[in-house]
Design goal:
- The chain is an alpha/beta fold.
- It has 2 domains: 113 residues, Rossmann fold (3-Layer(aba) Sandwich), CATH 3.40.50; 137 residues, Probable inorganic polyphosphate/atp-NAD kinase, domain 2 (Tumour Suppressor Smad4), CATH 2.60.200.
- The protein contains 8 helices and 18 strands.
- The strands form 3 sheets. It has a 6-stranded parallel β-sheet, sandwiched between helices. Strands 8-7-18-15-10-11 form a 6-stranded antiparallel β-sheet, covered by helices on one side. Strands 14-13-12-9-16-17 form a 6-stranded antiparallel β-sheet, with no helix packed on it.
- Helix 1 packs parallel to helix 5.
Length: 309
């Protein structure tokens, strides 16, 4: 593996609704100034900070930056990943939100993390996206990608969808339900997990198919390999259905629309550190394996609470 080189230019994007945003930008500015690294930012962020004329468009920011830092929550990282596309520009997420599962570095860890990146003490974790096409009759209506997931969900009224899943042209099953989630391993801890899907380590090249509230005891989540093509047929969508990619790009769907879906190549480069541990984050942030009463008692014990007192 080649040793990462010191960045010459760092691009910033961020969520303007986060109170810590200005402090995070100031931290990046100060550290990069001391290292002789130029800092530029997305035009929306520049506008939020009152730096008129100092921001760049999506494509310009990505093309001119050696790496991009997303300041915000997981949604901010997903938007930055969409902006980066398949350019290969590395992406570092800093959590200014609450859960921050994808952006697992909090604001207080930003100085150390940035210095480690500048020193080349990081690794690149290549991640795949779900790639999907919407077919209406014999033409492609839209093509979308999701780093976390691509989701087909029911419309504004709570009426079930008549869905059919095919693998390699063979019908796997047909049922009534609220929709289907097609998730990457990275996105397995997002909507798919909440809908009862499996948790999958992010470096596993897998496509997860998770039905949403199927009205059947025989329909269960699937974990498929990277070379499998899945087809979803929407036989009846009632008052409508919607396809979303990472909860950000929405496309309305009609009766008999088809969705073809597969796992794309590992084209997004996330910045991680050798000492980071996925399963530790799984335990700490999602409390895997701990019942609520155990978490509460553990918290009380750490705070010096004793039931007998």
């Amino acid at each position: 593996m080649n040793q990462p080189t010191k960045p010459r230019r760092i691009g910033l994007c961020g969520n303007p609704l986060k109170e810590e945003l200005q402090s995070a930008v100031a931290t990046v500015d100060a550290i990069c100034a001391g290292e002789g690294i130029e800092v530029t930012m997305h035009r929306d962020l520049a506008h939020q900070l009152g730096r008129e004329g100092g921001g760049e468009s999506d494509g310009s920011l990505v093309a001119s930056s050696d790496l991009v830092i997303a300041l915000g929550g997981d949604g901010t990282l997903l938007r930055a990943a969409r902006m980066i596309g398949d350019s290969g520009t590395p992406l570092l997420g800093i959590n200014l939100g609450s859960l921050g599962y994808l952006t697992d570095i909090r604001l207080e860890g930003l100085p150390a993390a940035l210095r480690r990146v500048i020193a080349g003490e990081h690794v690149i974790a290549a991640r795949s996206r779900v790639q999907a096409k919407i077919w209406r009759e014999d033409r492609v209506l839209a093509a979308v990608e999701g780093l976390n997931d691509v989701v087909v969900n029911m419309g504004p009224l709570p009426r079930t969808l008549d869905l059919e899943v095919r693998l390699g042209g063979t019908q796997l099953g047909r049922w009534l339900g609220d929709g289907v989630i097609f998730a990457t391993a990275l996105g397995s801890t997002a909507y798919s997990m909440s809908a009862g899907g499996a948790i999958c380590a992010p470096d596993v090249p897998a496509l997860l198919v998770t039905p949403i509230c199927p009205h059947s005891l025989g329909v269960r989540p699937l974990i498929l390999g990277p070379d499998v093509d899945v087809e979803l047929v929407l036989h009846e969508v009632g008052d409508g259905a919607t396809l979303t990619a990472d909860g950000q790009v929405a496309t309305p769907l009609n009766n008999e629309d088809r969705l073809t879906c597969h796992l794309g190549p590992p084209a997004l480069n996330l910045i991680k550190f050798p000492d980071s541990n996925y399963f530790s984050v799984l335990n700490q942030k999602l409390h895997w394996g701990l019942a609520p009463s155990i978490r509460q008692n553990s918290r009380r014990h750490r705070q010096g609470y004793h039931p007998s007192e």
